[in-house]
Structures are given as structure tokens and as C-alpha cells.
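Suppose a colleague, Dr. K., hands you the sequence of a protein chain of 191 amino acids and asks what its three-dimensional shape might be. Before reaching for any lab equipment, you can write down a predicted structure in C-alpha cell form. Begin with the sequence itself:
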Amino acid sequence: MDITTEQIFTEARSHNRFQDEAVSDDTLRQLYELMKWGPTAANCTPARIVFVRSAAGKDKLLACMNPGNVEKSRSAPVVAIVGMDLDFPETLPRLYPATDARSWFVGKPELIATTALRNASLQGAYLMLAARALGLDCGPMGGFDAAKLDAAFFAGTNVKSNFVVALGRGKPEALYPRGPRLGFDEACQLA
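The predicted structure, expressed as C-alpha cells, is then:
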């Protein structure tokens, strides 16, 4: 498959409705195998993903979504919950053996939370890029009850929800007109 910048960036859209077409386990595994290579600080990789697609899983998920995101979540064959593991420092001896990176976080809950949020967000972005590279469409969302979502999908862990992403083949006819973007001079500066 030839992957283009158009497929990943300029022609890709955030979808709100999806075709009734399953996403296979193999595709989800390929998606993870691609996304896991994206860089994170000290290779901390705090993202934890729950791919929700069963009827029971969807029922739990829909009960946590804000009203405006229910139909988007319902129509998607898969919704990925991107969580952040606040226990990620425990994996650092294995994932970043070059130094004692775990010690950087001992007794520093604010640093752990900030690092987890920043890097799990990066990994969630890599997830969307990997999905697009595999021919899937994405619909990222932040409108949900985080406490309910965490209780439903991350109970008994130190993983907290970050955001969710609807995945599948989008319905182009359900897209809103494309919104503008800021120009270089509005968003960037050269120093």
C-alpha cells in the first residue's frame, strides 16, 4: 500500500458517522504495531488502549459519552479509549535501560501526571496516524464523563482516560464542511 501525506494529513477528516463495516483484530494489532514506534520521553509509553467494539462494551461506553458524541460512538465499528497509565515509571527499567529513569519520578506525582498526559496524548496521535495509514478514518472525541469511563474500563488500575477515538470507514456524506486552519505566520515564529 502506498501511503500518502494526503491520506494521513491533508485529505483526512474527523468523521462523525461510520459505515457498518467491521474492523478486524488483525487490523487493530497492525495499528498498535505501527503506533508503538512513535517517540515518547524516555520511551515511557504510558498510553493504554481499550478497543471497544462488542455490544456490551458499546453499552458501557455510550453510558459515559456526552449526548453529542453518543451517535458517533454508536456508529463506529470500534472506539479506542486512549488511557494514560500513572504507573508507567515501573516499566522504565525495561523500556529505558540506558539509565535509572524510574528514579526521576519517585515521589513526584505531578511530574508523573504531566508526563503521562503529554506522552499518552502523543501516542493517541500516533494511533490516529497509524489508523489513517491503514485506510481507516478517525473521529477523536473528548466529550465524556472521565470518572464513569475510568470505572467502566480501567477499574482496579492506575490508568486514567485521556480521550477516545472512533475508528472505521467514515461516511463522507456525513462530514461537516472542512474548517480552516491557522496560517504559518499566525501559529509559528522563527527565533
